[in-house]
């Protein structure tokens, strides 16, 4: 299952910056494990977003509790479970195995 995680900062940016390196270490750990696919700041910089894959929501929420942003009260995480049904030709089927290849025509 894919998940969209929206992080919303609870603290001013100077506090966020103090924990950013530890947060990036957390992200790197999950990229190496194959859990996280994309991440980055929102624009304007009110938080961030992560695209993740996990076997279930409980597992993902366990990972997020390990994030230094969570541990230090820097950001709140909103988790959206997402099951893509269509994918662009350049997106690997392994990322969204249940998604059909979009061919540019409308579907019902």
Furnish the topology, listing elements before pairings.
Blueprint lengths: L1 E8 L3 H20 L3 E6 L5 E7 L3 H9 L2 H4 L3 E8 L3 E2 L12 E2 L7
Parallel strand pairs: 5-6
Antiparallel strand pairs: 1-3, 1-4, 2-3
Q: How many extended strands?
A: 6
Would you tell me which CATH topology applies?
Answer: Alpha-Beta Plaits
Which secondary-structure class do the elements indicate?
A: alpha+beta
How is the main sheet built?
4 strands, antiparallel
What percent of the residues sit in helical stretches (DSSP H or I)? 25-40%
Low-confidence stretches: none
- The averaged pLDDT comes out at 94
Going by CATH, what is the homologous superfamily? Dimeric alpha+beta barrel
Write a short abstract of this structure:
It contains three helices and six strands, in the order βαββααβββ. The protein is α+β, with helices and mostly antiparallel strands and 108 residues long.
Name the features.
single chain, alpha+beta, Alpha-Beta Plaits, four-stranded antiparallel β-sheet
Describe this structure in words.
This protein is α+β, with helices and mostly antiparallel strands and 108 residues long. The protein has a single domain, classed as Dimeric alpha+beta barrel (Alpha-Beta Plaits, 2-Layer Sandwich). It has three helices and six strands, in the order βαββααβββ. The strands form two sheets. A four-stranded antiparallel β-sheet has the order 2-3-1-4, with helices on one face. Strands 5-6 form a two-stranded parallel sheet. Strand 2 (36-41) and strand 3 (47-53) form a beta hairpin. The longest helix is centred in the N-terminal third of the chain and has 20 residues, at 13-32. It is elongated and about 45 Å long. The model has no long low-confidence stretch (mean pLDDT 94).
């Amino acid at each position: 299952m894919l998940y969209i995680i929206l992080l919303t900062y609870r603290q001013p940016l100077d506090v966020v910056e103090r924990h950013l390196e530890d947060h990036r270490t957390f992200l790197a750990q999950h990229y190496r494990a194959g859990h996280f696919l994309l991440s980055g700041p929102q624009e304007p910089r009110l938080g961030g977003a992560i695209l993740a894959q996990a076997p279930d929501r409980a597992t993902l929420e366990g990972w997020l509790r390990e994030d230094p942003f969570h541990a230090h009260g820097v950001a709140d995480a909103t988790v959206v479970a997402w099951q893509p049904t269509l994918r662009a030709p350049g997106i690997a089927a392994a990322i969204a195995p249940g998604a059909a290849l979009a061919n540019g025509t409308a579907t019902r």
